[in-house]
Amino acid sequence: MAFLVPADLVRVDVTGTERGDYLETVTSQHFGDARPGEVRGALYLDAHGAPQAVFDVVVLPDELSLLAPADLADEIVATLGGRTFLTDAKFARSDDVALHLRGDDAPEVAAAAGLDVDPGRAARGEDGLLVVAREGGSDLVGPKDAVEAAAEALRDAGAGDGGPDDYEAWRVRAGVPAWGREIVAPHLPEELGLLPTHVHLDKGCYPGQEAVARMWMLGRPRRRLAVVDVEGEGVAAGWETGSGRRKARVTSVAPDGGQALAFVPGDAAAGDRLGDEDGPAVAVRRLVGDGLPVPGHNPAMSRRRDSR
Q1: What's the chain's average pLDDT?
Q2: What is the DSSP letter of 80?
Q3: What is d(CA 101, CA 161) in angstroms, rounded to the nearest whole number?
Q4: What is the C-alpha separation between 73 and 76, in angstroms, rounded?
């Protein structure tokens, strides 16, 4: 069932004639060919490739809107907005409110409410409501009155009101890493499964680019983020098993305890069981991002990992 839950998101608007060029130089994503209505994930990395911030970039005709976790918004404005130097790019935090619409039938409910947008795209109405469609649902961001009116239309179309546990269950099942839980240093984008959605491999220099490219071309991730099934009792965030390269660590557990997100060995595959033979364990259901195309990857280019 589709459900609505308050979203811990803040909109940061980026204006100025060089806004796209500036984000191109400081984030992992490519914006040169982006067109109004597109939504692209992006990371701000340190020199070692570890994430310092994560956000979605909504391309609008007259600005770029960054949708970021609430506790990152001020840091984004201060750090990215404070380093533009002579570049014509200005960052400003909005006072918008935000809601998540999630659930298996969320697209159908959104369509019935007149808010249907193709996944990976966004639309902004005359009332200022920004609807950002994703796989599994949408985010509604805008003035309080506009968001409340949209929420009522969605309830009339069949959406229910959910809570944090509903969203967490959806997030874990969908394999969506969260800032401060999975998206933390020292994990690199490839370990997080974010290359397909937040990185473009064929673009110029940006902070952390060398570390990302080195891992892709020359190395193998020591660990990968996975959706896992939980077996037995006692598995909670922070639970670990194994050691060294065979170590697995759980970062988030769904409220019903049946599934979790965990960092598993880099060579793990679906079906692998990690844990004690007679005690708690996790079984890999799928690796986050596995099998998805990576923007900018040239299949004809030889990588060291492919020759092993």
Answers
A1: 95
A2: T
A3: 9
A4: 5
